[in-house]
Model the fold of this input.
Amino acid sequence: AASDVYKRQLYRLAKNSMVIDALCDAAENGKQVTVLVELRARFDEENNINWSRRLQEAGCHIMYGPRELKVHSKLLLITRQNNGKTEYITQVGTGNYNEKTSTLYTDLSLMTANQDIGNEAQLLFEALMENRLIEQSQHLLIAPLCLQNKVLEMIEEELSLIHISEPT
Done:
């Protein structure tokens, strides 16, 4: 038998969000749903407070971003216990899961069953729940401590692959 746990970060949502409906339905159907709601989403603070109340009423566990940081990630983690084995499905994206703005912008998304990425996403959610920062990561670029240096390293690696011939 499988049991599912959903963890989701929300930043800016549409007025009549289908994402909220889906998370509430999951919680009301017995799934464990944890949602990080960023209260400092500029111009959407009141909406996010209202969404967090609705989610909580449906049975979702609500957490808020660390006091000193704004959490702007777009991350979903589904954890399944299947015959005693933990399985992860992770979605990382650029969009706010806002039905209205999704018609205006192009967003990118990666959905993967890669267990290493899922494990790192799980560690990130644990850190956010404990109000601490991730100091090392292998697969995800996690600000503020694991983003800038990794991006610079990747740029240097790409530059080292470029062979520039001298003018003759």
